[in-house]
Amino acid sequence: MLYRISRVDLENTLSVLAGLAAFGVALFPTGRSGAVTAPQTLLQQTLGEAVVGRVHYVAACLLILALAGLSVCFGLRERTRTDPHGARLSRGFWAGYHWAFSALILLAIAVMVVCALQGVTGTWLFWGETFCVMAFAASWLMKGLELPTLRHRHRPRRGTGTGTASSVPEPRPGTAVPTATPARPL
Fold it and tell me: In Å, what is the CA distance from 134 to each residue of 26, 71, 101, 161?
């Protein structure tokens, strides 16, 4: 939430909003269902169970909308990036990737709203929220990342003469590799 806090742009604003909303979701529990006999939390006793539940739902809506907005921002950034060095997939692919997850989040929101308006009961809301968070996670994890980069496929090969320690030629198959002897104490 405080990462790059001084930077003023839409992506950072959405990130801070999502972080604050996540605190709201965590700190303000939902209302207790009829079958639950657990005691009220201190916050529910102080502010009232209905108020605390409303704060939870508003914070959850803000969180999920901010996550969808962040995925859109990731797509915009990928679309306009100037250095796709070593990228195996195009900028357009990555923009579409992030936008597809944004669309999935918005679709899940629409399903949750329809279920709420129809009075559907059960765990549908939990699973809808979980789906939204997982869709954002898939977008965020791949933001600026391609798996071949993790597999070191874009490192200079040994023996390429780059002037680094990796420029030592590889030994021929079947030959012994010399090892350094440890220094002797004086």
Answer: 17, 12, 9, 44
List pLDDT tens digits, range 93-150: 888 999 999 999 999 999 999 988 998 877 888 899 999 999 999 998 888 565 555 5
- Identify the CA nearest to 61 among candidates 135, 128, 159: 128
- The pLDDT > 90 percentage for the chain reads 34
Over the chain, what HEC string results?
CCCCCCCCCHHHHHHHHHHHHHHHHHHCCCCCCCCCCCCCCHHHHHHCHHHHHHHHHHHHHHHHHHHHHHHHHHHHHHHHCCCCCCCCCCHHHHHHHHHHHHHHHHHHHHHHHHHHHHCCCCCHHHHHHHHHHHHHHHHHHCCCCCHHHHCCCCCCCCCCCCCCHHHCCCCCCCCCCCCCCCCCCC
Phi, psi of 115 (to 5 degrees): -60, -40
User: Whole-angstrom Cα distance, residue 149 to residue 114?
Assistant: 41
The whole-model pTM stands at 0.69
**Maximum Cα interatomic distance, the chain, rounded to a whole number of Å:** 84
